[in-house]
Amino acid sequence: MNVPSRRRQLVAYTLASFLLAGMLLLSEAAQAQEDIPAAVKSAAATHKQKTIVTVANSAKGEKLEDFCIDSKGRILALMGQGEAEQGFAIPFLGKAKPAKFACEVRVYDATGKMAAKWEVGFTGQAINTAPDGTIVIGGDGHVARFDADGKKLHEAESPQMTYISKNTDEMRERAKEQLESDRVTYAEQVKQFEELLKQAKEAKKKAEKKSSDKKNTDKKNTDKDKPAKKTEADSEDEPAEEELVYGEDQLEQIVTAYKNMSKQLETRTVDEVLKEVMARARRTHSITAGEKDVFVSCPALAGYGFGVWRTDEKFGQAKEIIKSLSGCCGQMDVQCHNDELYVCENSRHRVVRFDRDGKELAQFGERDRTGEGASFGGCCNPMNLCFNKQGDLYVSESNGVVKHFTPAGKYLGIVGIADVQAGCKNSCVGVTADDSKLFYIDIHKSRIIVLDRDEKVSRK
After folding, report:
1. How many beta carbons lie within 10 A of that of residue 441, not counting itself?
2. Where do the H-state alpha helices sit in 268-388?
3. pTM
4. Cβ contacts of 104 within 8 Å, gap of 6 or more
5. Residue 108 belongs to a domain with what CATH number?
6. DSSP-assigned states of every residue in 14-75
7. Handedness of CA 277, 278, 279, 282 (dihedral sign)
8. Fewer CB in 10 Å around end: N or C, the chain?
9. Where are the beta strands (DSSP E) in 147-183?
């Protein structure tokens, strides 16, 4: 490998690492727009966007958290507390505080007309329909099951929180190991990126010297019609100066960020880490149910990945069956079908199938910049999935694209494209039993986009 090619790889590696470190450096990077490939836009889709169901009033502090489609084909919108718009200041009284919004489920028919609503009793973050028609909800350290009319049947502490409360010594030891691991990791990262920065600066100096030497050679060249003799340093493989300068700037930011984090880690305590682990663990990223089991995805109890817990139908006999899923932006969708789990492991650009004990059975999908066909583009896709009436998968991406796969992972085409703001986020999808309507969450605007089946497009 020649030096210039290696240098380009280092720049590419630097930029890739910069994106991975984006949560520390530029939180808005996760909201970056993702272009939809022309081939995807022009492909024949089985469903077309028709209507929008607005389910929240942001001025009143309402926010759409998640949704599912029940056994009757109705939309169950899980509502949570959002940020209310501030009113005008009243002299001597100040601004009135908005009333606290209680988490509730709002029931809409397929046309978007609200038919009912009922309170959850805790801060719900994920909702789904069980095979028997009951509804399971998880969030803020709780799980609960409701009947189709909203009557609460069971409620319990979420399985991960129960485990934490029963194993305090183990959790403290995990927190200690995590803190030590983080300190070592960030110290190593500082050294690695400082070395890359040193190489980038040396490359810049070399490029500047080459440019200066070339100017001096041109001045000495008395034969203006004869080009200056090309030296070995003038190789076409040499990166442009602008490329090196850009890489250096990005490296400076990364080194500074890692140094700051490394410095902060030196003063952190085990108790602080343990508190953060417990706070993260209260989150439910998705919940799904089989004939006899309930599965909850949540932050892993060690590290920064995701885990999946299995419980019985009344949330007892909890067991962590999957421990190291890789996801981005707090998103890890897990769906159950025929007592098997399908997981959108978005950071690895794939869908993984597991049995009820967490044994991996198969996987499909790969990363590709274009995101065409069976591949997935963007920083972290696919995001969510659901099943159609045949048991095939409708797999959603954060840019609004929904793709059709068989359970074995064979790509069948585009289902539809919802007009949403791109960026790493909950991209929940659902479909009616007759496959006539596809629903896609617009999490930023707290609404649900409805795509109707196009009878002119058939797909075997």
Report:
1. 27
2. 270-281
3. 0.79
4. 79, 117, 118, 119, 120
5. 2.130.10.10
6. HHHHHHHTHHHH-GGGGG---PPPHHHHHS-BSEEEEEEEE---GGGTEEEEEEEE-TTS-E
7. positive
8. C
9. 152-157
pLDDT in tens, 393-428: 999 999 999 999 999 999 999 999 999 998 889 999
With CA atoms as reference, report the closest residue to 70 among 150, 130, 158, 141: 130
SS3 198: helix
Contact 156, 142 (CB under 8 A): yes
Enumerate the H helices of 221-363 as residue ranges: 241-267, 270-281
3-state secondary structure of 248: helix
Q: Are residues 320 and 429 in the same domain?
A: yes
What tens digit of pLDDT does each residue of 167-178 get?
Answer: 999 989 988 988
**Residues 125 and 195 grouped into a single domain:** no
CA distances 97 to 60, 63, 81, 94, 231, Å, are 11, 17, 14, 9, 72
Placement of tokens 């299995």 in the chain: 310
- CA 16/CA 146 separation, integer angstroms: 45
Half-sphere exposure of 332 (CA within 13 A, CB side): 28
Give the count of domains, the chain. 2
